[in-house]
Amino acid sequence: MARTLPPYQHGPGIQVAISDIAEYANLSPADVEAIGAELDAIRSDIEASLGGPDATYLHRVIAFQRVLDLTARLVIAGSTSRTGWVVGAVLLAYAKSVENMEIGHNVSHGQWDWMNDPEIHSTTWEWDMAGTSAQWRYSHNYRHHVFSNVLGVDDDLGFGVLRVTRDQPWKREYLLQPLRNLLLALIFEWGIARHGMHSEHERATTEAGRRAVTQSLLRKIGRQVAKDYVLLPALSLRRWRRTLAANVTANLLRNLWAYVVIFCGHFPDGVQQFAPEILQQETRGEWYLRQLLGAANFNAGPVMAFSSGHLCYQIEHHLFPDLPCNRYAEISVRVRELCDKYDLAYTTGSLARQYLQTLRTNFRLALPDEGLRGRWGLKQVN
After folding, report:
1. What pTM does this model have?
2. How many CB atoms lie within 10 A of CB 228?
């Protein structure tokens, strides 16, 4: 049976950071490097097999998303009933989700750069949401994926507003964490935009550079607001209120869905956090292990996988963030076999189960640690 308990057990979903990943996983240095070699082999096999069918898949997805977006807007503009409006708003929300998660997120990861298509490339694609793709690429592709779940380095751990581990000192403001969590879900695209801007601010070396980052984001926000809340409603003439309400509703539903998918991949029980010292002389094999232990999947069929941007395979995504998402299902078979071989936990479960676990952890960590020990019977395991 795979091991799931960290060196200290403080109750479901509440852990302390790992400082020695090989010791935690009970692996020898040779085992760690063998795991790295096997995962490198998986990468090489997939890269060697990329070709026409993969490119066709992406082009069909883009065409589907654009037709769906247009259809949704026509339904919203042409419907005369409340039911028609609801159908149009839901279709638009789904089109926006596909654009953000299956297309924008994955293109911006460089998953399709091998096609050498200048219009579908990580350096040129701009997604349909408030944040800029360029700022997100630095905060997400580099700060998050390179330093996944390393405390104080990976800014995606709690997104700067949530406490996700007891290694983060409790503050009185965390009592509001359940409310913050709800607010983050509702305005998720704006949280991502702010998150990307602050990461770029930290990277900038001059005040002029920071101002340029802010101005770039404000220009993108201006274009998004003008498109969704001014131009498209204006084109509907007397029915502008219906279009405006549908756009607001679609963006809200897209935000909620993206939030659920992301949180289910990063904060359920079994997902580990790591101490900063783990980065000292980290080998390729250790990096792979950190990705594997620091992410979680949720069970999904083909439709759900597509609807989540294939982020139901968050473990495979963290292992190979720049491999095309349509290959994650076949990669997952080999990754699970590898986990079984080395007795490593492969964290997965139903979408509902994974999300409820993130909520439980969110509520528990809103309390001071003394309150946790008193209310939940938490203790250190020797």
Report:
1. 0.90
2. 20
